[in-house]
Amino acid sequence: MAVAFxxxxxxxxxxxxRSQEALSMACGLDKTYVGVLERGGNQPxxxxxxxxxxELEITAExxxxxxxxxxxxxxxxxxxxETTARGAATAAKSExxxxxxxxxxxxxxxxxxxxxxxRPKPARKT
Length: 126
What we know:
Blueprint: H1 2-16, H2 20-27, H3 33-38, H4 46-55, H5 60-77, H6 85-100
Helix pairs in contact: 1-5
């Protein structure tokens, strides 16, 4: 959803003839925040959507509609993947379990983990 909003925001910003920096400064946002939104790195709050829409002289409803269209296009053109936070967490968990059950040590040199315990040093032979 964040990526689809970014696509809609970028299209609206370009149509209005504004740069990312000019838009963010006019809205009172950090100068990099609009770029983060356009890349889908963050989901804006409702207040930020209204703020951006007012500055771009469009309605917030049109931004939401454009976001929905971008989401529909993305669903058609991409294979279905786990996109929810729960699905992503499940996929990550299954990957961890695969690695844990592989029989390989987590330490690349095969020494195992100490989990914060200090191992005694072997006695020196003189």
